[in-house]
Amino acid sequence: MHVRDLTAYLAELSENNNRAWFVMNKPRYDILRAEFLQVVIRLIADLSRFDPAIANCNPKKALFRINRDLRFSREKIPYKTRFSAALNPSGLKKPSQGGGPSYYFHIDKHGKLLVAAGEWMPPPDRLRAIRAHIVADPDGFLSALTEGKFKRTFGTLQEESKLIRVPKGYAADHPLAEYLKLKSYIAWIEIDVPKDPDMLEKVLRDTFKNAWPLVSWLRQT
Asked: Which of 7, 56, 94, 178 could form a disulfide with 111 if both were Cys (CB 3.0 to 4.6 A apart)?
């Protein structure tokens, strides 16, 4: 994959985020999209070695569309300025669909690579199930978060949109109260995207493998 070409394209798209420019540069987009798809195909094969369920992931459906959903957006620019993909057995990428734990990554216009795993903003029923599982299996949950490679790679879970109070039904002084306040159960890192395509794929493979303790625990929910 030509990483430099991709980041250059995304930077230019950011400066010319309109349909005319996009159509004029469509051949560039098609080439980069095809290369990105090949990365995802290889990733699915690699991840399947430690997570066999990922073999069921459809690589084409794993890719997010570059078109933005403008229906409820104040910002009316038509295109996203990142290439992104979410890998999970269900093929459901949107959190609202309740697709379960996923492996996600994107490359953006700034040349940044974000690599994430877990569940971001799951729907209410799924969120309740995860919290109940934490209470039922506290040792397993903590073991996943303190596993050596996971902890060295991610530190801990992200706390975006964390509740101020423990959700209804749980004691305020519960030993895992801070985790029960979370609305997402996801970990991620953000780094400069490696310019070497082989190194990019190695980073993705290694990071996702190190996230396996969390993904595996969430799969049991």
From this structure: 7
Determine the structural domain holding residue 181 and report its residue range.
3-219
Rounded Cα distance, 216 and 119, in Å: 12
Residue 153 phi/psi, 5° resolution?
-80, -50
Full-model pTM: 0.93
Enumerate long-range contacts of 135-141, CB under 8 Å, 24 or more apart.
Answer: 135/170, 135/174, 135/176, 135/180, 137/217, 137/220, 138/175, 138/176, 140/217, 140/220, 141/176, 141/179, 141/217
Q: What is the pLDDT of residue 95?
A: 57
* Contact call for residues 193 and 111 (beta carbons, < 8 A): yes
Mean of the per-residue pLDDT values for the chain? 94
Q: Give the count of beta carbons closer than 10 Å to the beta carbon of residue 18.
A: 12
